[in-house]
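Example record

The entry below shows one chain as it appears in the dataset: sequence first, then structure tokens.
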Amino acid sequence: MGVVGKPNVGKSTFFAAATLKDVAIADYPFTTIQPNVGVAYLRTKCVHMEMGVKDTPKNSRCVDGNRLIPVKLVDVAGLVEGASVGRGLGNQFLDDVRQADALIQVVDASGSTDAEGRKVPPGSHDPAEDIVMVEHEFDLWAYGLLKRDWERASRSIEQSGGKIMEYLASKLSGLSITFADVEQVLLHLHLRTEKPSQWTEDQLLQFVVQLRKLTKPSLIAANKADLPSSLENIEKLKHTGRTVVPCASEAELLLRRAAEHGLVRYVPGDASFQVPDVSKLSPAQANALEMVRDKVMMVFGGTGVQTAINQAYFGLLGSVVVYPVEDETRLSDKEGNVLPDAYVMKGGSTALDLARTVHSELADSFLYAIDARTGKRLSADHPLADRDIIKIVSSGKRG
């Protein structure tokens, strides 16, 4: 998952709040030079209570009935206009975001930073302009990759009887784009695949735009939502048709660090927090927590950081969480650990995909799967559903 946006909008604060990883955070543009890579968590209701068992997680955590599953988060350098031709840290940004399945675009909802990330009076800049800029620069960069030798390549393909879909998929494979993705977009745009040399520049750009929407879906983390000038902008952003999540990254970071030191009880994504012992708080800490409660939790029902991560996986990617087990009656592995693992699978994944994720040998010797809830046998192409508990049966007798 990529965390993107222009400079100085709070991307690094969002990243630090989600991962508790120490990163450079400052009130000026281009604080992030190299990409920050860390582990955040996808939050979902654990199945152990439904199944009436006590779980013993191994690859994830279960806190207050919530399964927290580690996911990779990448915070990349800020993007400015002209990045597609190398301005700012643009080329680096675009290289860093290649492999992301989806993007969380952080914007300054308060409108207190201009297009370059410099401080301006709150409310004086329209964050919707930043969204368009980031998307456009990504599109221009991908367009540049194709345009570079398009005339020669398209004519050569026509003369040799080659397949333009195969060429495009190969050319864009570094962006995690597949042949099926290319085919879907070409069909959607009704482009003549037998005459690619006749495509106009506008058609080629439209191809790139649609491909980005399909393969790099994004949502908007409207950061600094707790500032007075943000509320009106958040409503405007919602009218763009994009998924918009109000966020207060600084509040989330404060709560995460306070929880780490035992000052509050808080699980990422909670709508509130508790202070077990007020006497342990300094006056400054108590005041800060009270502000978070009044200006963030009571207004938005949470800080929005965990909501953005969950929305990216469950909403944009249609992901499902699946629990593989080796003993379908006890819901355990060979060592007796109950519901030990939880895997985040892309929407549309099958039982065979799960076997491949758990261990390549399981996929190679796959026979069938078993739904632990119903006891039914499942074929290799059986689509997985969220909260499935699955046993994989193979000829190698693994799992």
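Notes for this example: The radius of gyration is 24 Å. Confidence is low (pLDDT under 50) at residues 23-33.
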